[in-house]
Write a structure and sequence with these properties.
Elements: H1 13-30, H2 32-35, H3 38-68, H4 74-105, H5 117-124, H6 132-138, H7 144-150, H8 153-170, H9 175-195, H10 199-221, H11 223-248, H12 252-258, H13 260-269, H14 276-285, H15 290-303, H16 306-322, H17 329-345, H18 352-364, H19 373-376, H20 379-404, H21 410-417, H22 419-431
Length: 432
């Protein structure tokens, strides 16, 4: 048997993205004025817009196809309830880890803060428009077309569920429409494959602009907070998600290797949305059923924001200390409860991490809200870790809920997470 030729290293997307991130950081460091130009920023923004362009169609096709192929409509509701329970439990652990690390490392202690309310007025002003009732009403789109035009994931998800149930109720009459949606989904994934070729360019532009605009000075000033946040996120991924993954029968480390390309894209663009379509495709390839993937992943992007939860509790403690407010146990418990709500209420808002922080500070103590200006300069660097943690959390949630529902193909999971088995299978298929 002739051994299968290995793909050259530089042909792998993750290698190209990693090289682009390194080159972008170097370019931003050596030529900050040039790297901070709008055209450099446009490289990253353009790639993210290309990805966002196909998110709504992918969510629609995946959810409609998944629901339409399910005979028991009650199964969809059961998956949704399990997902929300899982999200709330894991989000609570994320919030608690942020508080724990904040109390152990004391970021902000000894820092004399000079908050500027004007710098954050644009963010804090948004929080008043997102009460619980407003959030629930906003899930219902004014029109189906409007939901797709705005790219609101929850609105598209609602319409997709209703459309899928409608096709399901038609029985044999709906078979043609179901086949059309399935074919449309394959076509949209083909579009994604084309768009992903531009990922290295997008990662280069986003990283170069970030380093060029904010520079090393912004990092040095609040490096301790950044380090504490990355440590807390790492502990959450390795300990909490690692234990959950082990209980579900897979390794968190192998999952990270499996998703390496998407993780690097998220890192380079500071946006977990940039890898949402690829995540849905890879979760199906890993053995998760289409209905579970179609429901859990889009919902998780609004309700399962583990990185954002860690960011809110840890940064709230930092701002309070920097402004000379030492929060007691009762106030920290209030932070946890308030953040559990605000992390859901600002989903879908541009700059959601900063918006939810404003809402949390205003609810805990309005006097702390101006302190957001202390972290405004480094928020871009922290958003990368937020996005990575959110992305990893949603990938684990999809596998766990698939297993919980009995909709996980264990053989495909093992084969997908073990590169040696995958390579052997591919070699056998190529010579079969």
């Amino acid at each position: 048997m002739i051994p299968a030729r290995k793909k050259p290293l530089h042909h792998h997307l993750y290698v190209q993205v990693l090289a682009a991130i390194a080159l972008g950081a170097l370019f931003g460091f050596l030529a900050p004025d040039l790297a901070a130009q709008p055209w450099v920023k446009a490289l990253g923004d353009g790639f993210i817009k290309l990805i966002k362009m196909v998110i709504a169609p992918i969510v629609f096709c995946t959810v409609v196809s998944g629901v339409a192929h399910v005979d028991d409509a009650r199964k969809i509701g059961r998956v949704g309830v399990k997902a929300l329970i899982y999200f709330e439990v894991v989000s609570t652990f994320a919030l608690a880890i942020g508080l724990l690390v904040g109390n152990l490392l004391n970021p902000g202690a000894g820092l004399v803060g000079a908050p500027d309310p004007a710098l954050v007025s644009q963010y804090s002003g948004q929080t008043t428009a997102h009460s619980g009732i407003d959030f629930l009403l906003n899930i219902i789109p004014d029109s189906a077309i409007g939901a797709f035009a705005r790219g609101d994931i929850l609105q598209v998800l609602l319409f997709s569920l209703l459309f899928g149930f409608a096709i399901q109720s038609l029985g044999e009459k709906g078979r043609g429409m179901r086949a059309f949606v399935d074919d449309a989904g394959h076509a949209v994934f083909a579009v994604i494959a084309i768009v992903m070729k531009a990922a290295p360019i997008g990662a280069f532009g986003a990283m170069a602009y970030t380093v060029g605009k904010y520079g090393s000075a912004a990092l040095a000033a609040l490096a301790y907070l950044i380090g504490a946040f990355y440590l807390a996120s790492g502990l959450f991924v390795l300990c909490i998600l690692g234990l959950i993954a082990r209980a579900a029968g897979f390794s968190i480390f192998r999952l990270l290797v499996y998703l390496r390309e998407e993780l690097l894209i998220v890192l380079g663009t500071s946006s977990s949305e940039s890898a949402l379509p690829a995540l849905m495709e890879k979760m199906e390839r890993l053995g998760c059923s289409k209905p579970v993937v179609g429901l859990v992943v889009p919902t998780g992007y609004s309700f399962n924001l583990d990185g954002t939860n860690i960011y809110m509790t840890l940064t709230t403690l930092f701002i309070a200390r920097a402004m000379g407010h030492e929060l007691d146990i009762g106030q920290q418990a209030t932070i946890l409860l308030v953040a559990m709500l605000t992390s859901k209420g600002a989903s879908g808002v541009s700059g959601a991490g900063f918006v939810t922080l404003a809402a949390t500070l205003a609810a805990v103590d309005p006097a702390l809200a101006p302190g957001m200006s202390l972290v405004l300069g480094i928020d871009k660097f922290m958003s990368e870790c937020r996005s990575l943690t959110n992305f990893i959390g949603n990938s684990v949630a999809t596998i766990v809920i698939s297993a919980w529902e009995g909709e996980l193909d264990r053989a495909r999971l093992v084969r997908g997470l073990d590169p040696r088995i995958e390579t052997a299978v591919n070699a056998d298929e190529s010579h079969g």
